[in-house]
From TrEMBL:
Keywords: Oxidoreductase. It comes from Ulvibacter antarcticus. GO terms for molecular function: 3-hydroxybutyryl-CoA dehydrogenase activity; NAD+ binding. Belongs to the 3-hydroxyacyl-CoA dehydrogenase family. Residues 185-282 form the 3-hydroxyacyl-CoA dehydrogenase C-terminal domain. GO terms for biological process: fatty acid beta-oxidation. The chain holds residues 1 to 291 of 393 of the full protein. Residues 4-182 form the 3-hydroxyacyl-CoA dehydrogenase NAD binding domain. This is 3-hydroxybutyryl-CoA dehydrogenase.
Length: 291
């Protein structure tokens, strides 16, 4: 029975995953090395909950139940009693490995240690553990509370029991599970890389500006967001790192080549929604406008 959930990283994804698990009745501990991130996660959850109450989707008692199910903690050790931990920190293999090793030194033998990585190999993360069979990829999409799909990725070391429990847990949280092999980008990000990549090339070749590209894909393609809006939503830093990792992991296959525009936006700190400026501009309330 998976009841106690530890989430590592309280940014965009970690805070969303915490909300999903808390809404499903789990007791969640959310850890981040940056206390400001935890404060932001708490404030953002409250805002979301208030909106849901206003819209009549949940009542006040449901709101308090979800909020009370999440504890914001300042040390990794606070996650010691977890049945399942999901890591959603920076997309960097060495840093993730260190966190996993530390975590394994105090959680129970039965605790499943999962990563929400978009592009790193689960086998390489699992290899950092003494018991790699407890490691699995559990990949949510942004925003985690709204996106139905979750990819569950067994590494070659992952045990059948770990996979089964992970799959059942995520289904119990109301999500649709797609099991994917441990290959770069799994399913969705593999398809998505050329989508962003080709849009960036169209922009760089001067064929159309990004407003026109977004508008064309929304109007004709039926996409809810165009590629540039979506990159701003994901975070241009996160999206660039994922593109670079998938490109390298496919032995530099040009289909996945990152674009300089993407790199420059990340370097400039034009991260998108989270920094208030990306391909578009965003005000305090999140309202998007053309820069
Ligand atoms: P983010 O930048 O919004 O949040 C990352 C958080 O991790 C930050 O609050 C940071 O303070 C914290 N952190 C960094 N190092 C830490 C450590 N050692 N221990 C504890 N906390 C630490 O990033 P985001 O977007 O939430 O991404 C997190 C992970 O989820 C990445 O692996 C990313 O590839 C993956 N992902 C991202 C998606 C997206 O659309 N942004 C979608 C699906 C997966």
């Amino acid at each position: 029975m998976i009841k106690n959930i530890g989430i590592i990283g309280g940014g965009t994804m970690g805070s969303g995953i915490a909300q999903v698990a808390a809404a499903a009745g789990c007791s969640v501990k959310l850890f981040d090395t940056n206390s400001e991130a935890l404060g932001k996660a708490k404030a953002s959850l409250e805002k979301i909950m208030n909106r849901l109450v206003e819209k009549g989707r949940i009542d006040a008692s449901e709101k308090s139940r979800i909020e009370e199910n999440i504890q914001y903690v300042n040390t990794l050790k606070d996650l010691a009693d977890s049945d399942l931990t999901i890591e959603a920190i920076i997309e960097n293999l060495e840093i993730k490995k260190k966190v996993f090793q530390e975590l394994e030194s105090f959680v129970s033998e039965k605790c499943i240690i999962a990563s929400n990585t978009s592009s790193l190999s689960i086998a390489s993360i699992a290899a950092s553990l003494k018991d790699p069979s407890r490691c699995v990829g559990i990949h949510f999409f942004n925003p985690a509370p709204l996106m139905k799909l979750v990819e569950v990725i067994p590494a070659i070391q992952t045990s059948k029991a770990t996979l089964k429990t992970s799959e059942e847990t995520i289904k119990n949280w109301g999500k649709v599970v797609a099991i994917a092999k441990d290959t770069p980008g799994f399913i969705v990000n593999r398809v998505a890389r050329p989508f962003y990549g080709e849009s960036l090339r169209i922009y760089e070749e001067g064929i159309a500006d990004f407003i026109t590209i977004d508008s064309a894909l929304k109007t004709k393609g039926g996409f809810r967001m165009g590629p540039f809006e979506l990159m701003d939503f994901i975070g241009n830093d996160v999206n660039y790192t994922v593109t670079e990792t998938v490109f390298e992991a496919f032995y530099y296959d040009p289909r996945y080549k990152p674009a300089f525009t993407q790199k420059r936006f990340a370097e400039a700190g034009y991260l998108g929604r989270k920094s208030g400026k990306g391909y578009y501009e965003y005000d305090e309330s999140g309202q998007m406008s053309v820069r």
